[in-house]
Design goal:
single chain; alpha/beta; Rossmann fold; DNA polymerase, domain 1; 2 domains; 8 strands; 48% helix; globular
């Protein structure tokens, strides 16, 4: 492999606490009840707007009339708290070091808002570890559309057949399928291995060490 494109939340970093905190602070500001960590785990993966849609429906606001208000509040709060309790999963830092030594190009493709995706990556891993970071941007359709993977391959000048996509959710399974690239789904994130296989994952990997061996 000449390049590895990673999903961020649930793949490289455990970001669930940051999203739970920001969602519930948003709901509190709107005068609405909060959601549980387990609910948030199920709602993430499709970007901030979908997270707010699912949260509002869960707390009884099913009309959609407060979606834009909630989204604006969430984006403000999340911008201030996107690294709250965020840590890399065990073994991820060593994995990235190994891949860089093998001259594998590294990139991130996330449905998290672009500015926050960059902030999390640079705060947690430092600048220069990844060759490219792409969060949700207006000019690039969000996952599971393949546009993000194709944009990164073009930016890195790496043929799509030499790229591996690594994620942790149903969205990532579909993203890899839609892009037609080799795809590995990890079981240490926001979904269990059983859930991932039921969702159609072809290759499920249980540890960063196993992923490193697969790439080599």
């Amino acid at each position: 492999m000449k390049a590895c494109i990673f999903d961020l939340d649930g793949t490289l970093t455990d970001t669930l606490d940051s999203m739970v905190y920001s969602v519930n602070a948003t709901m509190e500001e709107l005068g609405l009840p909060g959601i549980t960590k387990e609910q948030c785990r199920r709602y993430v993966g499709n970007g901030a707007r979908m997270l707010m849609e699912r949260t509002l429906e869960a707390v009884g606001e099913k009309s959609g009339q407060r979606l834009e208000e909630a989204l604006a509040v969430y984006l403000r709060i999340f911008d201030e708290n996107c690294t709250y309790h965020v840590v890399p999963y065990p073994g991820i830092t060593a994995l990235l070091d190994e891949l860089k030594k093998e001259d594998v190009r590294l990139a991130v493709l996330s449905n998290k808002p672009h500015e926050q995706a960059v902030k999390v990556v640079e705060d947690i891993f430092g600048k220069g570890v990844f060759d490219y970071v792409s969060g949700q941007q207006k000019n690039i359709r969000r996952k599971p559309d393949p546009a993000g993977i194709r944009h990164i391959c073009e930016t890195l000048s790496v043929p799509e057949e030499d790229c591996l996509y690594v994620g942790d959710s149903e969205v990532d399974i579909k993203t890899g399928e839609n892009a037609g690239v080799k795809t590995v789904i990890v079981s240490w994130g926001f979904r269990t291995g059983e859930e991932l296989r039921q969702a159609g994952a072809g290759i499920v990997i249980d540890s960063p060490a196993e992923l490193s061996a697969y790439v080599r």
